[in-house]
Amino acid sequence: MPKQSAPDETCGLRERKKRETRRALHHAALDLVDDKGYAAVTTEAIAERAGVSARTFFNYFSSKESAVLGVTGDQLAETTAAIAGRPEGEPPLVSLRLVLGELLAPASADRDLRAKRRRILLAEPALAPALVGNNILFENAVTAALERRLGVRPGSSIEARVTVAAAIGAVRACIEHQQNGGSGRLERNIELAFEQLAAGLR
Amino acid sequence: MPKQSAPDETCGLRERKKRETRRALHHAALDLVDDKGYAAVTTEAIAERAGVSARTFFNYFSSKESAVLGVTGDQLAETTAAIAGRPEGEPPLVSLRLVLGELLAPASADRDLRAKRRRILLAEPALAPALVGNNILFENAVTAALERRLGVRPGSSIEARVTVAAAIGAVRACIEHQQNGGSGRLERNIELAFEQLAAGLR
DNA sequence: TGCAATTTTGCAGTGACTGCATAAATACTC
DNA sequence: GAGTATTTATGCAGTCACTGCAAAATTGCA
Description:
The structure is a homodimer of 202-residue chains. Chain A has 202 residues and is mainly alpha-helical. Chain A is built from eleven helices and no strands. The first copy, chain A, has helices at 13-36, 43-50, 54-60, 64-69, 75-84, 92-104, 111-123, 127-131, 136-150, 159-179, 186-199. The first copy, chain A, is globular, with a radius of gyration of 18 Å. Residues 1-9 of chain A have low confidence and may be disordered. Chains A and B meet through helix 9, helix 10 and helix 11 of A and helix 9, helix 10 and helix 11 of B. Chain A binds a DNA duplex (30 and 30 nucleotides) through helix 1 and helix 3.
C-alpha cells in the first residue's frame, strides 16, 4: 500500500504522536500562561500538564517563549518559502506585511487557539520580542530570502536588511502600542504602520 | 562646607567608589568577553576580575549583557533627556539617528574602550539585540520622549512608536549586516539606512 | 567617637537549559 | 510474528543567570 499523498497528511504513527505532543505542549503553555501569567509558569509545569517529562519539553521547544508562541524550528523554512513564493513584481514591503501577519495569527490554528494566543501576546510584554524582533536567525533568513527574490547578491547592500528590520519593527511597535493602551485596532494599526514606512519617515 | 556644584564631578568618596566599581566591572566584562567570547564568560568571572563578590555584580548591572555593554539604569533618563533637548524643528528621524548613534559609541568613553566595545558588539550576535531592539522599557521611554517633543498626546497614534521602532531596527540591521560580512562601513551604512527610511520603503 | 545610612557579601534558592546514558516505543526485515 | 535497528522519552546530574534576605563591613555625619 503506497503512502497517502495528500498535501499535509500525517503518515506514520510516530509522526502523528510527535505532532500531538507538540500541540499538547503548546496548548498547555497557552492555558497556563493565560491563567497565571508568563512569569509564574515553569517549563516543568507545562510539561506536566502536557503529560510528558520535563526533559522532553526541550526536545520539542528550545525555550519557554517558543512553547508559548508555538514557534517550531521549521517555521523558519516556511517563512522563507512564503517569501520566495510571493509574486514577482510585488513590493517587498507588501510581501513582508503578509508574511509577518501570518506569524502573528497563524492560519493553521483554529479560532479559539488564535484568540488565546493573541490575547496572551498582547498581555505579556516579554513575548513580543520573542515573536518579532529578537530572533537573529529569523532576520537573517528573511533577509536572505528577500535578497534572493529581488535577485541581488546577499550582503551587497543593506537595503533588504533594513527593509526587513523596519517591517519587523513596525509590527512590534503595533503590539507594544496595544500593550500600552494605545488607540486603534491591531490589524488596522499594522496597515497604518506599513503605510507610514512606505510614505517615508520624517 | 557646601558640596561642590561642578557639572559632573564626583563629590563624596562613596560616589567615587561606586563609579570606580561600575567601571571596573564594565572593563572586566569587556576584557574577558574580548578574550574568551561572550558565552564562555560567567558573571562570577567578571566579578572576580573586578575584585568584587559575585553578588555585588548584580548590584551594579541587571544582567550580563548590560555589564558588557556598560548599560546603566539612568541611561534611560539620559536618552530621553537627549531627545527632549534636540532643536524644535528637527525631524524626529534625525534626532533618533543622533541619539542612537551616541548609544552605539558613547562619547563618554575613551578611544580604546570605544574600540573594544565596538569590536565586541560587532563580533557577538547575542549583544546587538541587547543594545538595540530588545528593550521594551527603552522603546517606551524613547517613544514617550518623542511624543512629548512633538506635542502629541501619548498613545493617540502609532506614528511616533513606529518611527522609533524603525530607527532602532535600522541601526540593528546595520550591525547585523556587518556581523554577516556585509559590505560597507558601519557609520556610512547607518547614514544610508536612515536615508532609506526617510525616502520611504518599497 | 558614636550613630545612622549605605554598600558588600555570603547563603540559599529558583528556574531555564544542556549533555549523557538508559529505557521505552516505533519502524523495518525476514 | 520475532528480532533488530532507529527514534524518542526519560532520569540524572550539572551549569549558570539571577533573586531575596540578613549579617557584616564601610562610609557619612553629628
